[in-house]
């Protein structure tokens, strides 16, 4: 098992290139199999979840040709199997997108119940409600979701909760249904818009993505396209909070500043200077930062996927901050790990009260999930002494060359795989 070992205390300084959005790319890869013509996708992040999705679609017969680390050509013509057996696919959340894609194209799909980070109970009832409204029979048997329809028919669907996954999944299936689908109370995240744009570039007729109501007029076939995935707002935000927590000066490059508004607002509130450019944002963090309150909400609210990163930063701000997690009930596990480093927080229900401390001290901690793992690395970078982060396999699900990017900003961090390497690192930096 690999670990990160970090010697904290260096302010992060410099420029860092942000990759394509994992959560947009995963849905786009699934949607790419909905045509029998070749689709070229650029700006893919080279992370584990993407590789699992590529293997899964190749496993059912799609032609997958990796042009380079960030570009792939996919042709769904050869798909011969609508049953996703592939062992790893059930471990990723986005496996559920293959249901919408296969159901839309072939009117049938069998996919293992999805996994993903253990951040809450994560039901998929709204996905199934949407498929059923389109006329599919949906059952769960032996750990698999089995969906089938004679013919999908457009429908009027009101989602009971705002869900990114169900919005995208049902949108994919409806793209090839007969007639008009109207989806209300949908998610407005940038990746919902990106997937709609991608499907439209293949000939779909989807209007309203980015608002509360999406209207989809089904088409009979989709066609070839070339598409570049949007930048990852969560990767960008992670580096922005790393700059804040280490009192650094970091410019995140290749971003869409509009997608980062909630993050920028919170950085301003705690006392960072934030400068916006056309496709870059600079964060300068000087002196002691001050506390603030934050509540996670669907976009354009503050993203739940950035809650651990701001939580760690707030633990180094003067005063008391309250963090309210309104999307997933189990996203505070990083605070228990942070306590080993001197962090002070009290969790009550879906709120954490974080008392700012003047310093954190390095310790051995475990990444409980993807974003919590990244947040603990931020803590290690800001702390005095050496931090070891175990279970970085979670971080590798969603961050490309994380340690290399951090190193380019002056961080002292290594990816190691044994106690011997840990000792070697300690000797080198002592
Ligand atoms: C692979 C991927 O893109 N994952 C993202 C996706 O997860 P995911 O698609 O799982 O998250 P959703 O947006 O669907 O979930 C939002 C809320 O709706 C609830 N819900 C969801 C579906 C459903 O059928 N029933 C239901 O009650 C969930 O429990 C949660 O409280 O969006 C989350 C919210 O932005 C992000 O944290 C995840 O990083
Ligand atoms: C929680 C996340 O991913 P997943 O939904 O795939 O678990 C995430 O990207 O922060």
UniProtKB/TrEMBL annotation:
One of its GO terms (molecular function) is UDP-N-acetylglucosamine 1-carboxyvinyltransferase activity. Its main location: cytoplasm. The keyword Cell division applies. It catalyses: phosphoenolpyruvate + UDP-N-acetyl-alpha-D-glucosamine = UDP-N-acetyl-3-O-(1-carboxyvinyl)-alpha-D-glucosamine + phosphate. Transmembrane segments: none annotated. SUPFAM superfamilies: EPT/RTPC-like (SSF55205). Residues 7-406 form the Enolpyruvate transferase domain. The active site is at residue 117. Pathway: Cell wall biogenesis; peptidoglycan biosynthesis. Phosphoenolpyruvate binds at residues 22-23. It is an enzyme of class 2 (transferase). UDP-N-acetyl-alpha-D-glucosamine binds at residues 93, 122-126, 305, 327. Its EC number is 2.5.1.7. It is found in: Cytoplasm. It comes from the Bacteria. Belongs to the EPSP synthase family. MurA subfamily. Cell wall formation. Adds enolpyruvyl to UDP-N-acetylglucosamine. This is UDP-N-acetylglucosamine 1-carboxyvinyltransferase. It comes from Dorea acetigenes. The lineage of its organism: Bacteria, Bacillati, Bacillota, Clostridia, Lachnospirales.
């Amino acid at each position: 098992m690999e670990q990160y070992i970090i010697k904290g205390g260096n302010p992060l300084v410099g420029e860092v290139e942000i990759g394509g959005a994992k959560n947009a790319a995963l849905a786009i890869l699934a949607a790419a199999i909905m045509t029998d013509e070749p689709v070229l996708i650029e700006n893919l992040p080279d992370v584990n979840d993407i590789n699992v999705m590529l293997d899964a679609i190749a496993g059912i017969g799609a032609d997958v040709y990796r042009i380079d680390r960030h570009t792939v050509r996919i042709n769904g013509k050869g798909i011969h199997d609508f049953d996703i057996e592939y062992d790893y696919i059930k471990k990723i959340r986005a496996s559920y997108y293959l249901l919408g894609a296969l159901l839309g194209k072939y009117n049938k799909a069998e996919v293992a119940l999805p996994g993903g980070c253990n951040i809450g109970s994560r039901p998929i009832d709204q996905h199934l409600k949407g498929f059923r409204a389109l006329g599919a029979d949906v059952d769960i048997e032996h750990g698999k979701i089995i969906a089938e329809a004679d013919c999908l028919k457009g429908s009027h669907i009101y989602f009971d909760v705002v869900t990114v996954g169900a919005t995208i999944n049902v949108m994919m299936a409806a793209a090839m249904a007969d007639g008009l689908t109207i989806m209300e109370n949908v998610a407005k995240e940038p990746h919902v818009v990106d997937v709609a744009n991608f499907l439209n570039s293949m000939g779909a007729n989807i209007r309203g993505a980015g608002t509360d109501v999406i209207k989809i007029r089904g088409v009979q076939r989709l066609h070839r396209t070339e598409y570049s995935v949007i930048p990852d707002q969560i990767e960008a935000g992670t580096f922005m909070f790393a700059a804040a927590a280490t009192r650094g000066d970091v410019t995140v490059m290749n971003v869409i500043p509009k997608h980062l508004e909630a993050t920028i607002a919170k950085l301003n509130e705690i006392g960072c200077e934030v400068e916006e450019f056309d496709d870059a944002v600079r964060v300068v963090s000087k002196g002691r930062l001050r506390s603030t309150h934050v509540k996670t909400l669907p976009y354009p609210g503050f993203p739940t996927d950035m809650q651990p990163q701001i939580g760690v930063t707030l633990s180094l701000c003067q005063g008391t901050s309250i963090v309210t997690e309104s999307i997933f009930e189990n996203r505070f596990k990083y605070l228990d790990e942070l306590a080993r480093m001197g962090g002070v927080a009290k969790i009550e229900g879906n709120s954490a009260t974080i008392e700012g401390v003047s310093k954190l001290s390095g310790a051995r901690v475990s990444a409980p999930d993807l974003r919590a793992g990244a947040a603990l690395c931020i803590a290690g970078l800001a702390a005095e002494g050496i931090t070891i982060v175990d279970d970085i396999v979670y971080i590798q699900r969603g961050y490309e060359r994380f340690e290399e990017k951090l190193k380019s900003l002056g961080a002292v961090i290594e990816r190691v795989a044994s106690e011997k390497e840990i000792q070697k690192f300690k000797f080198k930096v002592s």
